[in-house]
Every structure is written in C-alpha cells, then in structure tokens.
Amino acid sequence: MAPKHNDRMDIDSDSDISIDFEHTTSKGKGKGRAKAGDKRKADKGKGKAKDTQAYTWEASFTRSWDTVQEDEAGSLQTSVEDLLARGRRRSCLIFIPRHDILLAPAAAIRRTIIRHLVLILDLSASMMDRDMRPTRFDLMLQYAREFVTEWFDQNPLGQIGVVGMRAGLGERIGVMSGNPQEVLKSIADRHKMEPTGEPSLQNAIEMARGSMNHLPTHSSREILLIFGSLTTCDPGNIHDTLDSCVKNKIRISLVAIAAEMKICRDLCEKTGGQFGVAMNEGHFKDLLFELVPPPAQRPTPRPLGAGAGATTNTNPAADLMMMGFPTRLPDASPPSLCVCHSEMKSQGFLCPRCLSKVCDVPTDCDICGLMIVSSPHLARSYHHLFPVKPYDAVQDEEDIPDGSKTCHACARPFPEKTANAKEGISPVGRYRCPDCGQDFCSECDVLVHDVVHCCPGCGK
Ligand SMILES: [Zn+2]
Ligand SMILES: [Zn+2]
Ligand SMILES: [Zn+2]
Ligand SMILES: [Zn+2]
C-alpha cells in the first residue's frame, strides 16, 4: 500500500486542484490533522463534514466551487484575480526555471531545441489505486495528454514516442513522431492500455534506449517516466542499463506517484534528469509540466589556466547542422506515394534535397536523412533562449508615471485600486516590464509570458 501524503500540501504547488484539495481533506477526514493555518477553513467545514464526502471519490464534485468564494462585497472579482495571479506565479516558476534566472542574464544559456523524448507510462496493477482521483491511471492519462499538447507547443521541433510498462514487459504504444495528433492518438484509447501485472523499469528503459540509439548528437535524448509502483520486475541488472544510459547521454526524468525508490532517484541523478514524488494531483501536474521547457545545458567547467581566455565561455563550440525547408504540396495535387507510410496521398511535403515526399514535418527524410523543418517551427522554438523577463507587480500608486492610464498592450483602462495585497498581485492591477518600464494588465501579462513570448513594449 502506498503511503499517503494527502494531508500535506506542497508549498510550491500553485495549481487550483492542490489548493482546494487541502481544503477538502481538512473537511473530510482532517481530524485535527490540518495545519494551524488551515484551522479557520477546517472550522468552517466542520458543520458540513457529516453530510458530505462519505467517499473520497465524491470530493471532486465539490472542488470547483470550493475555490471560488465571494468577498465581503459579494463579488467574485477577488477570486478571479487570485486565480490569475496564481497562474502568473506558476508560469514564472515553470517556464522560467529558477536556475536560469540565477545564471547571469549575459551568460549564454544553451538549450536543446531539437528534442527526442520517450514517455514511459506505468501500466501496472498499482496504477488502479484510487489515492489520486479518479484513479492514478486515469489521472496519468489525462495529464499525459495535456503534457504532450503543451510539450509540442513549446518544442515544435521535438518528437515523442510512448512506451508502456505492464506485465513485466515494455510495450511500444506510440512510435517516435513529431506530430502531436499522432502521439495523442496513441494514448487516446484507455482500453488498449488497461493496467495489469508488474512494471519492469529495465525492459521499458531498454526499449526506449533502443529507439533513440540512432539519433544524431545535436538532438537531446530524454526519457520521462511516470511511475506508480514500488517494485520493478527486471530480467537483469538494472544498474547495467543505467550505465549504458549514462554512456548514451540519455537523460531520465521520473515522476513517482507512490513513493521514492532508491533506484528511481539514482536513474535521474546519474543521468542528469529530474526526480520528483507527487504529493497530490496538482503537484503531480506541476512536476510533469516542469519538464516541458527544454533543459538548459550545464556548461562543463574547464580546468583553470588552460586556454581560459576572456572571450571563450564554458560552452563547447557550436556545431552547424543541416536542415531543409520543404515544399508544401497543394491539396489538389495528383496523389503519389509517401516514403514514410507508402500511402497514396495528395497532401505532403517535398524534401528539398532528394524530392521524396513525406507526410509531416518536422521529420528526418527517410531517403537522404536530411532534417526537414518548417520555418515557423524553427522560429517558434527560439523563445526559450530569450524568455521574456517576469513582470514586476506594481505595489504602490505613487509608482505610476503620469499619463499611463491604460494597459500598454490592450489599451484598456487599469482597474480601480483594490485592497488585495497578496504576493505577486498588484493592488493597482499593473505589471511592469523591467526593461521598457511599461505597465500591462494582468491578462496581458499572462498572454505575453505564456503565448506571445515577446514583450510588446520593448520587443524583447
Ligand atoms: Zn507517410
Ligand atoms: Zn530527402
Ligand atoms: Zn492589457
Ligand atoms: Zn518590455
């Protein structure tokens, strides 16, 4: 039986679900276990405790309106602002990881924009546990789909493959593909992935490793494991697998749903990946989504003295790589066979070097091996290298320069001053770019950082 961390709440986790989850537990079964800070909430809930939430799975029904609470004036404005601000803080935490901010802004950060990821899903019997609602399995599938969508949005040049672990075997669920629709389709049918038996870390990792062995050095090789068991059933020594992953430069990250296992931590630490144990649903999602932005390449420190010139930094020299921009065939063109699936189709792309026809970009040409990308994809992967700096919440009315009564981006007037002075929320509804000093409303702030990736004030 997995240990339950339900009555603890992660401080870093800012997602909605985790917040009210704490709320629900303190109502339902938090007999004096709620922390001091929750006392007020717990007291409030006591009256209702008898007639509600006999079963944990019922709790989900109360959640959505538990978070939204009217303020003294009976307005929902404060709650809405709270949610927005929570989103802001989360996106700052996730999309601009802290270690990047700590790196001097002038220092070049290297990120791999051509990524190859194998998503390994635990499909063992322990995934049917209901400690995460509705079950670990359903929650994992739901988050995996959201993860894939977000991942392709942020990494348009990446490719994802999916491997499942069940009945002691690794099972290929989706082949490596750069098309989000194809990956989503492979994990769409839950009946094909019904959990059963024991997981095998070694078999699954070996299978993932095998599918990435041929990749060129300029692309990343990553494995993301979602692991809900406390056992692994391996045919050989898993440490040998670990060693070969280190040798092949495969980065393993793991999100555990049950509890920490030594081998899991070792897998992540030795390969340079991230390891996390999800405490609740919201934290699980946070841990997953932390892996969406491409990992920064750690500069390898050079021995002092040997060529430590002022201009050379610690990064190795950049390599050039060849890419081709394909010609898109119009939908009305005569049908011809594609080289990837051997299907008759009208639409497709022509490889600029060998003129063979492929179905999707980005991909590697099956005939000549050229990497084929579309230029919008390339441009979209650029923003990770130059993230928009987080805007500062303007705390004081006196801080406001004359003249700016409206948001610099959408030109709507800023709201009246509110008494809401929580961390990360501006009482005057203004968020200021540290570079250009322009003020933006909270909606535009979120949009700029999550979607546009470019400040409308300074164009950075
Ligand atoms: Zn094809
Ligand atoms: Zn070609
Ligand atoms: Zn605005
Ligand atoms: Zn700016």
TrEMBL record:
GO cellular component, one term: transcription factor TFIIH holo complex
Span of zinc fingers (C4-type): 351-368
GO biological-process terms attached to the record: DNA-templated transcription; nucleotide-excision repair; regulation of transcription by RNA polymerase II
Record-annotated VWFA domain positions: 116-267
InterPro entries noted in UniProt: C1-like_sf, Ssl1-like, TFIIH_C1-like_dom, TFIIH_SSL1/p44, VWF_A, vWFA_dom_sf, Znf_C2H2_type, Znf_RING/FYVE/PHD
Transmembrane segments: none
Organism in which the protein naturally occurs: Hebeloma cylindrosporum
UniProt function note: Component of the general transcription and DNA repair factor IIH (TFIIH) core complex, which is involved in general and transcription-coupled nucleotide excision repair (NER) of damaged DNA and, when complexed to TFIIK, in RNA transcription by RNA polymerase II.
Protein name from the UniProt record: General transcription and DNA repair factor IIH
Residues of the C2H2-type domain: 431-453
Principal cellular location given in the protein's record: nucleus
Listed Basic and acidic residues bias regions: 1-11, 35-51
GO molecular function (one): zinc ion binding
SMART domains cross-referenced by the UniProt entry: C1_4, VWA
This protein's UniProt keywords: DNA damage, DNA repair, Metal-binding, Nucleus, Transcription, Transcription regulation, Zinc, Zinc-finger
Region Disordered, annotated ranges: 1-51
Compartments it resides in: Nucleus
Entry similarity comment: Belongs to the GTF2H2 family.
